[in-house]
């Protein structure tokens, strides 16, 4: 250590420097120049830093390099004081394994067993709703399940919200089934009668969710979602009762459903009371955070239920149109799938975007399957086509894009959406026979 300097190598989080540091200056006074030289990166002034030797010995801030016996050629680590420079040594394998298992938090405990039993029971109850049985057995079982679902959802809403949600889902499904069964004698025969019975079932499920909503707010998304489904199904059934063809009715309902996606945010804000709070604040009324938090939770529940319902209805309508095996309904279904993917950009929360992305992807897959099964020459190559499409999709999604590129893509998508809307409306005119009626 000649003179008053020590020639050392300082290793920081961002870079490594060979430096000559004063030997008699306290380490605390050496840290600011080291941080200013960029060794710590962007967050150099956001944490407490210290110097450590390669063997993990911490250099006391009040002591100098000479006091710490730092020699020429030594390596010093500059790091956050809360970080460990060297990993802890393993002294006992058994103790280390036990510590790792405990810290991972994945052990099967009694609570895990109860959760598993709850999920199995919920799956069994839901699956039983689709199992054929005697009318009396179905009615009695359905009534018991509906009553139990309401009571359980009220009782477990705070302590076990998952159990409450599963109970609500099972209750809604069984209310749908028993109403569908009970309305058999009052509904006409054929497809229209079957759709009418399912519409009755949807409204019965809404009624049960309204009763459950009295005891727990967890029933709100179920109520909204089922109400959306029933509200869409009702005019479809009425139109078909008056003689409207299935393809035209479903096509119009699909287009209107896709168009309604853009209205969901404002409708949810109005139903949840957010607009009313805004008016109160503008009028000078004091609004506390708990009230606003409750309204935002209600807004999210309304929006989530409506999104899931619209995504489900749109996917079902696409399946119906593709099953017709005709050109124009198939093109309308394809346009709806693309519209679901593009309109998902209205939202930014994952739980709001994902249902539309999934519905759009399923719709495109249904259209592709219908095209292949219709006798396409590519049917023998269907596995290869599916794999190729998946790889292309992943490749396009993985390409990094800058902010400018994202803005350009958004402008292109907006233009495509306008053309897509115009095309869907034109196809609706063809499906409904409007052009033939005016002599085109």
Automatic annotation (TrEMBL):
Keywords tagged on the record: Membrane, Transmembrane, Transmembrane helix
Highest taxon above the source species: Bacteria
Record's keyword annotation contains ATP-binding: no
Lineage: Bacteria, Bacillati, Actinomycetota, Actinomycetes, Glycomycetales
TM ranges: 115-131, 137-155, 250-275, 296-321, 327-344, 356-374, 380-400, 412-438
Alphabetical list of InterPro entries matching this protein: EccD_transm (IPR044049), YukD-like (IPR024962)
Protein name: Type VII secretion integral membrane protein EccD
Keyword Iron-sulfur tagged: no
A Pfam family it matches: YukD
């Amino acid at each position: 250590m000649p003179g008053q300097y020590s020639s050392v190598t300082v290793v920081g989080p961002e870079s490594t420097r060979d430096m000559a540091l004063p030997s008699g200056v306290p380490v605390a006074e050496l840290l600011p120049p080291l941080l200013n030289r960029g060794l710590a990166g962007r967050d150099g002034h956001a944490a407490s830093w210290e110097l450590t030797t390669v063997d993990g010995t911490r250099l006391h801030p009040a002591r100098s390099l000479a006091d710490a016996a730092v020699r020429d050629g030594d390596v010093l680590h500059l790091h956050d004081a809360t970080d460990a420079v060297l990993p802890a040594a393993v002294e006992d394998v058994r103790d280390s394994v036990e510590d790792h298992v405990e810290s991972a938090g994945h052990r099967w405990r009694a609570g895990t067993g109860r959760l598993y039993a709850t999920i199995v029971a919920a799956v069994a109850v839901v699956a039983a709703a689709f199992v054929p049985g005697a009318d009396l057995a179905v009615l009695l079982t359905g009534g018991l399940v509906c009553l139990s679902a309401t009571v359980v959802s009220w009782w477990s809403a705070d302590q076990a919200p998952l159990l409450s949600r599963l109970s609500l889902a099972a209750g809604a499904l069984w209310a749908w089934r028993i109403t569908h069964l009970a309305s058999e004698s009052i509904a006409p025969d054929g497809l229209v009668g079957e759709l009418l019975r399912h519409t009755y079932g949807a409204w019965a499920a809404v009624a049960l969710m309204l009763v459950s909503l009295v005891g727990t707010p967890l029933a709100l998304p179920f109520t909204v979602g089922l109400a959306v489904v029933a509200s869409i199904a009702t005019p479809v059934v009425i139109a078909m009762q008056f003689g409207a063809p299935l393809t035209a009715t479903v096509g119009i309902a699909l287009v209107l459903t896709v168009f309604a996606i853009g209205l969901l945010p404002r409708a949810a804000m109005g139903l949840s009371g957010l607009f009313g709070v805004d008016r109160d604040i503008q009028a000078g009324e004091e609004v506390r955070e708990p009230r606003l938090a409750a309204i935002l939770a209600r807004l999210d529940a309304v929006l989530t239920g409506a999104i899931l319902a619209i995504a489900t209805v749109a996917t079902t309508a696409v399946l119906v149109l593709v099953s017709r095996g005709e050109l124009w309904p198939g093109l309308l279904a394809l346009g709806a799938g693309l519209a679901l993917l593009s309109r998902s950009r209205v939202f930014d929360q994952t739980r709001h975007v994902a249902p539309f992305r999934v519905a759009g992807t399923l719709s495109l897959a249904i259209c592709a399957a219908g095209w292949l099964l219709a006798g396409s020459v590519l049917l023998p190559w269907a596995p290869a086509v599916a794999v190729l499409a998946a790889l292309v999709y992943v490749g396009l999604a993985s390409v990094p894009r800058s902010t400018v590129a994202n803005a350009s893509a958004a402008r292109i998508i907006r233009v495509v959406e306008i053309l897509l809307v115009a095309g869907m409306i034109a196809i609706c005119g063809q499906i409904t026979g409007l052009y033939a009626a005016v002599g085109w």
